What does this fold into?
Amino acid sequence: MLRLIPGVRYLIFAFFGVGFIVQGQQPLPDAPKPQEQSQQLPEAPQPKAQPANQFPDNAPPAPKNAHAEEPTPTPTPQRPVIPSGVVTDRGQLPVFSISVNFVQVPVTVRDGSGKIIPGLGPSDFRVFEDGVPQQLKFFTADPFPLSAAIVVATDLPATSMKKVNETLPALIAAFSEYDEVSLYRYGHTVQQVSGFTAATSVPTTSLNRIKRPGREGGPPMLGGPFGSGPSLNGHPVTDPNAGGRDVPTAPREFYVLNDAILRAAQDLSRRDKSRRRIIFVISDGRELGSTASFDEVKKILLSQNISVYGVGVDTAAIPIYDKLNRIRVPGFGTGNILARYVTETAGDMMAEFDRQGIERAYAKIADTARNQYTLGYTTQATKASSYRTIDVRVLRPNLNVIAKPGYYPLPPQQQRQQP
It folds into this structure.
């Protein structure tokens, strides 16, 4: 047997004793992972989600004294009373659109100074069709995403065309990320520059394709002795020294605004009907040489619930000149027909002469088109496609109501019979 020196025996005992003490302790846990530690912490109380204010312009201001011991309670704005049976969800519009006898009416309400009035409810409106009161089935004041066909006149004088070219980026910026736009240009013909795409994704190359240098000189001659060449008793004058050929004259100008709006309306008619579909025209409003007439185009617009908005430039922005242009002379075309489209479809129009004014008009008109009251009712479906009048009234004094004066109903859809 091994004999140990007493001093060494005590050292060995002390060494193993320490080892037993260490082994007898509880093992240390692994370092906590960050996500585990965050799960053990008490969750911070989340503020309750407040219901979306249907009319943000009437939202009450935040309390100024946030540290007061007893803050004054913020009064809750009175919300419009929604009668039973009236749908307010914009998502229900596709359901209504299945039936062709559902009539959708965008409405703008302004005061005497032109300011848009928010905060109205369905009980504030009365709608009449052909003089007969209608019961509202749909009402909302929520903003709508836009499907906008942008139509630009590109045969304007060079100085006016230069202003329009410079404002095109601001025109696209007037639309939101939820809107979609398509670009068109017109002069003697109509051309679609780009199809419908998100407003925030319109490439610069598409805007550059709209830009044109414009024409030189003053206002064009649309007819008469200076615009159509020399004539005698209604017959063109011939030059005997040129073998009886007609005296050469300058080519006739064409401004096919009717055809341009018709092309845009046809493309818009195939877009999602849950969006607000508009045609945004930048033009002097001149019309001459279109294949389609004003009445034909108006019928398409009103049957498809498409509104026309416009920014009048060049001669349309000069009050005296524009007033004279609206007098139609046979053979000379129409000086400014854009204002008629705006009135018949309950759109909006602004006339601006300088670049800054044009850019402000873009933003204001796009905002007006997006933020309107939308009323809906069902009407009797008939096979007749005759024009029906609409009269929208607001039961409050001193307010101006802007709504389409009528529409053309679509023919009833024929349902397939099951075999």
Observations:
- The chain has two domains: 84-143+372-419, 146-215+251-370.
- Residues 6-24 form the longest helix (19 residues).
